[in-house]
Design goal:
Aspartate Aminotransferase, domain 1; Aspartate Aminotransferase, domain 2; binds pyridoxal-5'-phosphate; 2 domains; three-stranded antiparallel sheet; 12 helices; 366 residues; alpha/beta
């Protein structure tokens, strides 16, 4: 069996360090807040090119807290894309906003900046572009439109740790950048976790307060009402160990992608297209093909855990029926949902595993 992601292999490669970090937290009973969390936050901020990083309980809460901190109000509209995990749009609704979709570029699968302006009106407050699969969107293009219309920009980088735009780390851009540490992500916790980065000191302080009952350093003094959505210290300690390996693991993902590219180049399959401004960190290696479902079944039957990200665009999900969209509203996103296929991708994937995936895939498309 070749899994889509092999978390066990990764754990075994750093078991001693991880076990020691977990034991240390338990021995010290240092479960909430503290130096491990602060240390992780500042290291993560530095590695992603931002001034501040606020650890939170998941990527979903990262998005939600960012919107609340930026002052989203009831009936404000927030723009995002239909080909993302529902957390992106869900958090808009949860924060009191209204979801507005914009179609994607068919080659990069990221927001189509050319279509952005048409979706903006007086109610538009923010844009949440997604850096999907590990590749940054056209950040400059988005920011230009956002500045023209005075909109906030929250980047959903839940799949794009250590990705870059024109060689600059993602933390340099936008009001906030949100990351997920869901276990299968490029930097994954051993449970749920997430983080928000920003370069705005006041905003950072507000977010630290929001995620910890609206207080600042004093246990029972609350300046505002907040929530409890802190990042667990146990997770921060694990992530501190894993952060040491993230650059190496990213390179290994890129090497694995290069191997797939080489082996699949004359097959007629559509391979990942890396925009000239982007550096791709291959959270997912996504190809595109006709008769995707048949090929997926052949791969799965052969013990290869390929997947689909995502099979149904959000505007056609039952959850968004109330928006009144129909098939054809966002054709590029709809086409991608019918034809994308994610092949096994993780830093530890071996050459033999890649060869095996490719052999079955080539046989399947014959
Ligand atoms: C693009 C995207 N946005 C948001 C999320 C939500 O992150 P989490 O699962 O940590 O809440 C995820 C991950 O699942 C994601 O892939």
């Amino acid at each position: 069996m070749i899994p889509l992601v092999d978390l066990k292999k990764q754990y075994l490669s750093i078991k001693k360090e991880i076990d020691a970090a977990i034991n240390d937290i338990i021995e010290r009973t240092a479960f909430v807040g503290g130096k491990d969390l602060k240390n992780f936050e500042s290291r993560f901020a530095e590695m992603t090119g931002a001034k501040y990083a606020i650890g939170v309980s998941s990527g979903t809460t990262a998005l939600y807290v960012s919107m609340i901190a930026l002052g989203l109000k009831r009936s404000d509209e927030v723009i995002t894309v239909p080909n993302t995990f529902i957390a992106t749009s869900e958090s808009i609704t949860e924060a009191g906003g209204r979801v507005v979709f914009v179609d994607i570029d068919e080659e990069t699968y990221n927001i189509d900046v050319k279509k952005l302006e048409k979706a903006i009106n007086k109610k538009t407050k923010a844009i949440i572009p997604v850096h999907l699969y590990g590749q940054s969107c056209d950040i400059e293009g988005v920011i230009k439109v956002a500045q023209k219309h005075n909109l906030k920009v929250i980047f959903d980088a839940c799949q794009s740790h250590l990705s870059a735009f024109k060689n600059e780390p993602l933390g340099k851009f936008g009001d906030c950048v949100c990351y997920s540490f869901y276990p299968g992500k490029n930097l994954g916790a051993y449970g749920d976790g997430g983080i928000i980065t920003t370069n705005d000191e006041e905003l950072a302080r507000k977010m630290w307060m929001l995620i910890d009952h609206g207080r600042w350093n004093k246990k029972y003094e609350h300046d505002i009402e907040g929530y409890n959505c802190r990042l667990d210290t146990l997770q921060a300690a694990i992530l501190n160990v894993k952060l040491n390996y993230l650059s190496l693991w990213t390179r290994k993902r890129q090497e694995a992608a290069a191997k797939y590219n080489k082996l699949l180049k004359d097959t007629g399959l559509i391979l990942p297209k890396v925009a000239d401004y982007a550096s791709h960190v291959y959270h997912l290696y996504v190809i595109r093909l006709k008769e995707r479902d048949k090929v997926l079944k052949i791969l799965n039957d052969a013990g290869i855990q390929a997947g689909v990200h995502y099979p149904i665009p959000l505007h056609l999900q039952k959850a968004y029926e109330y928006l009144g969209h129909r098939n054809g509203d966002f054709p590029a996103a709809e086409d991608s949902c019918l034809s994308v296929l994610s092949l096994p991708m993780f830093p530890e994937i071996s050459d033999e595993e890649i060869n095996q995936v490719v052999a079955v895939l080539k046989q399947a498309i014959k």
